[in-house]
């Protein structure tokens, strides 16, 4: 078998394949543009999802509990004290979850300043409520101990 040798004018061969080569480069360039466009869409979709999550998260920041009332120290039993301690711990657990939610909002720089400030104000109010509850507990327990003596 003999190989056929194609003899052509210089540049003729490159001209023959030039269209294919340019098409290949064009396809690669188009592919890169598509990849860039897809990446931009993914990023913008992610940002939109994060903003929607923050807004949905803001609506979920509710405190579903109230500080427990302290029983009458003169009439309280040890079981009443134990129940009150359990209620305080449960309330503090609720406060922790509530504050995490509020903290996520108040530290989110993508949200409006007034939204972040409102979350911070609610956070501070929850600290005040917990402080008042602890003070009530301390007063109750001191009176309870005095009544038991």
What does this structure look like?
This protein is mainly alpha-helical and 149 residues long. It folds into two domains: 10-60; 61-149. Helix content is 77%, strand content 0%. It has three helices and no strands. It has helices at residues 12-60, 78-106, 113-148. Helix 1 packs antiparallel against helix 2 and helix 2 packs antiparallel against helix 3. It is rod-shaped and about 90 Å long. The N and C termini lie far apart (118 Å). The relative contact order is 0.10. Residues 3-9 have low confidence and may be disordered.
Oligomer: single chain
Query: What is the radius of gyration computed over CA atoms, rounded to a whole number of angstroms?
Result: 35 Å
Q: How would you describe the shape?
A: rod-shaped
Q: Which band does the percent of strand residues land in? A: under 5%
């Amino acid at each position: 078998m003999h190989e056929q040798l194609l003899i052509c004018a210089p540049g003729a061969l490159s001209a023959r394949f030039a269209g294919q080569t340019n098409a290949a480069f064009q396809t690669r360039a188009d592919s890169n543009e598509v990849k860039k466009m897809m990446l931009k869409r993914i990023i913008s979709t992610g940002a939109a999802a994060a903003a929607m999550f923050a807004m949905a998260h803001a609506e979920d920041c509710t405190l579903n509990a109230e500080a427990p009332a302290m029983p009458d120290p003169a009439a309280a039993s040890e079981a009443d004290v134990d129940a009150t301690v359990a209620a305080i711990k449960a309330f503090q657990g609720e406060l922790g979850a509530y504050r995490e939610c509020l903290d996520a909002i108040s530290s989110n720089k993508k949200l409006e300043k007034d939204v972040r400030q409102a979350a911070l104000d609610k956070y501070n109010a929850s600290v005040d409520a917990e402080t008042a509850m602890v003070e009530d507990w301390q007063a109750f327990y001191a009176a309870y101990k005095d009544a038991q003596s």
